[in-house]
Amino acid sequence: MGAASAKEPLEFDRPGTGFSASVLAPGAVVWEQGLPDSERDDNAGVRTTTHTFGSVLRVGLGASLELQLAGAPHVRVSDTSPDGRQRRQGAGDSEVGLKWALPAAGELDWALLARYGLRTGSADLRPDRHARSLGATVAGETAGGRGYSVFAGYARDDAGRGWQLAPSLDLHAGDRFGGYVEAVLGTGSERGVRAGGGLTWQPRGAVQLDVSVLRGLGAEAPDWSAGLGVSLGLR
């Protein structure tokens, strides 16, 4: 779709590892909210569970560009071990991002998203360095008419640096209900393999509810990642 027009349906970035291959029409605004997004990992006898209520405000700028302002008003991290449980909670960091829809290449749509982290979170949750990431999504349709996308991204933060590759395939894409499956392969700080999928429901064109889950395959990836969210659009 590339740069969306005001008459085209909104394409939300939630759910999934990557993001849509289009930008909002000039002046369009979308709010995407995690309710929350969660992760659980057992490592060396310690179970770490993280719940993040993350928010993203997307604004169409025109010229195939979109501004994204992201933040996490509340984050809760729980570490459980034989010695007991420790909890940390507070505000997470913020991010500013710029998304650019490249000219369509035949039947394929392309988009890039660059993000820069702002150290605005609570003291015990704030990273030592500003996070940076750059991602790309390519989307199209199979010969059978199913939508697919491939996300590739590079990230650098306190955990180091790493790459991710996440192909996904639509199982159903109706006017109200949608479903997809995806796999996530990572290296470096993003190392590990995960697989899963998600469902979406749009009771109205500008409202979407979503649920997703990923299962870690092997010891390197988090055991479980899951998300529940809502997205609201305004023209």
Polypeptide structure, described:
The protein has strands at residues 2-3, 22-23, 29-43, 46-62, 65-81, 84-90, 94-105, 108-118, 132-141, 147-157, 160-173, 177-188, 192-204, 207-217, 224-234. It is built from no helices and 15 strands. It is mostly beta strands. A hairpin with a 2-residue loop joins strand 5 and strand 6 (84-90). A twelve-stranded antiparallel β-barrel has the order 3-4-5-7-8-9-10-11-12-13-14-15. It has a two-stranded parallel ribbon with strand order 1-2. The chain is globular and about 55 Å long.
Give a brief outline of the structure.
This protein is about 0% helix and about 70% strand. It is mainly beta and about 240 residues long.
Provide the descriptors you would attach to this structure in a database record.
70% strand, mainly beta, two-stranded parallel ribbon, 12-stranded antiparallel β-barrel, 0% helix
Uncertain stretches? none
Number of helices in the DSSP assignment:
0
Helix percentage = under 10%
Write out the strand line-up for the largest beta sheet, numbering strands in chain order.
3-4-5-7-8-9-10-11-12-13-14-15
SSE pattern, N- to C-terminal = EEEEEEEEEEEEEEE
Number of distinct beta strands: 15
Tell me what portion of residues adopts beta-strand conformation: over 45%
The biggest sheet amounts to: 12 strands, antiparallel, barrel
Quote the distance from N terminus to C terminus.
17 Å
Q: Mean pLDDT score, rounded?
A: 93
Shape: globular
Structural class: mainly beta
Alpha carbon gyration radius: 18 Å
